[in-house]
# Entry
Amino acid sequence: MARATEQAALIVAHGSPSDPDGQEAALAALAAKVGRHLPGWRIGSATLAAEGCFERACAGLGHPLILPFFMARGWFTQHALPRRAGALRQLAPFGMDPALPAMLLRRLSSQTSLLLAAHGSARSTGSAEATALFAERLRTHPGCPPLRVGFLEEAPHVAEVARHMPEGSACLPLFALASGHVSIDLPQALHQAGFTGRVLQPAIAWPETPGLIAAQIESHRSAARGAGSIPKLEGTP
# Structure
């Protein structure tokens, strides 16, 4: 077990119950890249869907700082993860990073419009509300093209929205991992709509992601040192 005084962080994602090992491996590869940006840190990873992995990772790292690799705040980041993390310190979700809008919009400089494709839920408004907040962060940033939102599991559905997107549009999947939603459900919906525009990769595949995560971790540590303590994230126990 790592000593509590060591600098350690754990990147945590939802994962996939249908493919726990594949998502664990992908997240571990991301953690290794983040570690190369943070000499002296031990960076681990775990998905919540892989039984026991989160607890084993925490035990191996000692008292890691928790980085939720989610695109928005929601039930998992505000309830499920804090409950399992206990007294461990938790940062804001990756998708809340203030640097994200500018980075994403640089990738979209040649697109005439943008379709933000998200999960959605037929049972809860939380996913739609979080997506709306992310979309608003993009819209208020200079250079954002006209933006529309579509969901896989609630209206307005991706296929319906994509059908009316102008030529030259791009689609941004609001997903952290390359899950079945990204590799199967979203392409099927776009094909159904006849969408031929550019489809961006999920966050785990962005080349900037390891550096952004490393900067989040280091920024929190620097702020905590300046304050003399490490404050808990609002909403954690």
User: Anything to note?
Assistant: The helical segments are 20-37, 53-61, 75-85, 100-107, 126-139, 158-163, 180-193, 209-227. Residues 1-5, 230-237 have pLDDT under 50 and may be disordered. The chain is about 40% helix and 15% strand.
